Amino acid sequence: MGKRSLVLVIADKEIAAKILFALSASAAILAVGLICVFLFMQGLPAIWNIGIINFLTGTSWRPTWDPPLYGILPMIVGSLYVTAGAILFGVPIGIFAAVFMAKFCPSPVHKILKPAINLLAGIPSVVYGYFGMVVLVPFVRENFGGNGNSILTASILLGMMILPTIITISESAIRAISPEIYEGAIALGASHENASFRVVLPAAKSGVMAAVILGIGRAIGETMAVRMVAGNQAVLRMPHEFLSGARTLTTNVVLELGDAYGGHRAALIATGVVLFVFILLINALFSMLKKKGGA
Amino acid sequence: MNKTNKYSMKNVDLWYNDFHALKNINMDIPPNEITAFIGPSGCGKSTLIKSLNRMNDLVEGCKISGSILLDGESIHGNIDVNALRKRVGMVFQKPNPFPMSVYDNIAYGPRTHGIKSKFKLNEIVEKSLLDAAIWDELKDRLKKSALSLSGGQQQRLCIARALSVQPDVLLMDEPTSALDPISTAKIEELVIKLKTDYTIVIVTHNMQQAVRISDNTGFFLLGELIEYGNTQQIFSMPSDKRTEDYITGRFG
């Protein structure tokens, strides 16, 4: 070290560490920025060419016709259906499971449940899709009719897939509520169930809402599993047709991008833009709720 | 059994796992008076007050023996513990309002015990807040979050919340230790007013507080009840050397 003082050496190390952290952080921001730029650069002109109204509200997707039709309303609606269905199945089960894990579950059971749920989060979506094909599709076909590849099937499967997100985040939100709040309710003569559901769960509502929104984000972005069970017809469906197949924004891209070129390819990238805007909206909602919860 | 006593404790021992936290407590608590528990940290005074509405049931590894009678009836027999806690309200050391509106904080208890009528709930909310001497400050803020109140207001809200289920007894576990002197004075004034309708047990670290508000004082040390009696008497002529040492500030 020679004549350099220890203080200076430590200061140098701190600066080096700061630069390292700043670089790592900017890598993530850079990635998001690049995705934004390239997606919009390629997608927006296509939307412009097709016409934003035609593109978003057109009910026919006929990329091989002459002239081709690029209406993605069926896919937007398809995405909304399967996401809404996933919420219908996943959110109540997820929230009840989270309350159970935080407030009711004896600790030996928790020791088994927790890793099981983490495992659920780690299963690749193609495996969920396979499970959907061999179990859920026949189940829906035999019990509800249709050929089984349907909005309903995709909803159930997505409902399962968003469970770990909802359970894990809700459980930690519930656990973060201070025990004094719970004791306050118990001291008024409330039962454990009442205190847990009427006081602790509402106290954790901003965290639980955040969990639900992250779940929605996962559901709307899921591709592979949906593709394997949803039927994928690019047809505008009405809500009562939940036993028919539907195509989502994500599956539209993955089904056709492989052999698309020119305007078709651009229209698919534009589909990705619409999906990306959905995700941005969901994230904005998420951070708004988080801010509200903090205040 | 002396029927006139609100609480009657006989040979109460309590363990947290292997730790013997209360040792052979014998104590009667008269109705419509303020009884203060004093003593240094870890002496068992908080443990004892939490035994009176069985909040200790929530503590894992807690074992209790002996008898605690409320109006002549054991609180450990075949009784509904929720009904016990409805009869015996509790105010905690740190104000713990629920993160909901002022109104819902008060209405939660009555709702839990089956009151649904909006009219009746409004009445209870107003009466509870009036009794806790905070109605004037809060009557225009009933829909506001309870967390937006000051610490002292939160604590009086918690007292109002405890009153909302019409208890006979009010247990207060160091209710002013987290508050400033002005809020503390307001709460002391309130507690003295409340004793006409309620039996009050208060744990306090603050000996002046015990002198100012209580009728009876129990001095605890290392899980034992060292001395119990009239507050004036305890503070002017303690019969036990250890009580004298504590109240004259020789330890604690």
Radius of gyration of CA atoms of chain B, rounded to a whole number = 18 Å
| CATH architectural type of chain B | 3-Layer(aba) Sandwich
Q: Work out the helix count of chain A.
A: 12
Structural class of chain A: mainly alpha
User: Which strand order do you get reading across the main beta sheet of chain B?
Assistant: 6-7-8-3-9-10
Percentage of residues in DSSP E strands of chain A: under 5%
CATH class of the largest domain in chain A: Mainly Alpha
Question: What is the top-level CATH class of chain B?
Answer: Alpha Beta
> Helix and strand succession of chain A?
HHEEHHHHHHHHHH
CATH topology of chain B: Rossmann fold
**Which residue ranges of chain A are poorly predicted, with pLDDT under 50 across at least 5 consecutive positions?**
none
CATH architecture of the largest domain in chain A: Orthogonal Bundle
* DSSP helix fraction of chain B: 25-40%
Rough outline of chain B: globular
For the largest interface, the chains and their residue counts are: A-B, 17 and 27 residues
**Helix count of chain B?**
10
SSE-based structural type of chain B: alpha/beta
Number of domains of chain B: 1
